[in-house]
Amino acid sequence: MGRVTERRKVIRIRDGAVSTRPDTLVAEEPLEIRLNGKPLAITMRTPGDDFALAAGFLVSEGVLAEQGDLQNIVYCAGATVDGSNTYNVVDVRTAPGVKIPDITLERNVYTTSSCGLCGKASLDAVRTTARWPISDTPPVRVDPELLASLPDRLRAAQRVFDRTGGLHAAALFSGEGELLDIREDVGRHNAVDKLVGRALQSGGLPLSQAILLVSGRASFELAQKAVMAGIPVLAAVSAPSSLAVDLAAETGLTLVGFLRGRSMNVYAGEERIALQAAPAQG
Prior knowledge:
Elements: E1 5-14, E2 17-26, E3 29-35, E4 38-45, H1 50-60, E5 70-75, E6 89-94, H2 103-111, H3 119-129, H4 144-156, H5 159-164, E7 168-174, E8 179-185, H6 188-201, E9 210-214, H7 220-228, E10 233-236, H8 242-251, E11 254-260, E12 263-268
Helix pairs in contact: 1-6, 3-8, 6-7, 7-8
């Protein structure tokens, strides 16, 4: 099975001095996800939590919604010509009676969501397939001071990042700031899938009282994953995309960007932020 990190020789140049030494790199390998025996998707990921990644991915695609929807997940033996198991192919089996949506078109919409022509279709696809409308969830109120404390706590919990400097992270926090779970991966979207998949496997969906914090920016895809998991608050240390903001406004998701120190921008869902003063107009 692939490791989370690998060692490679590197030539270091420091102030003109040249030396050779091993360096620790984050591992990146493809993972093929099959659904009931049929190939569905391939993602580049950091090995580890592969079953959770696959389950979370299928939550975001509207296939799985609760623990009982999942029958089992297995690595596929004989994934190569010589019959060896690469541990890079997983097959997700749904429970009898679980309706499989037509996700081929939706996947095309999601993966091309940056194009202007399909933006509205992307928003409609998420809105119509979301199992837990965020606007219907019990109210969550988050203090800006609590939000400001979360990036440092996320960074402190990134164990593999300290050794490689090459991983994104996603974490779930309670409304009181308790760290519920954290996952690292070479892909930001994979880290979120691993969180959501673990929640599905433990019967924890919807995550209607959780805050999702991601390293880097908040893309449409990450906002989509938050909405599909019933997460009411998504915060990112960098900028959101325009379509992520549109999706947040459309679904009632609270979206916070540029969360750095005590500064942040609230792009949508400001009713969940315990503001001390009314937002500036204009």
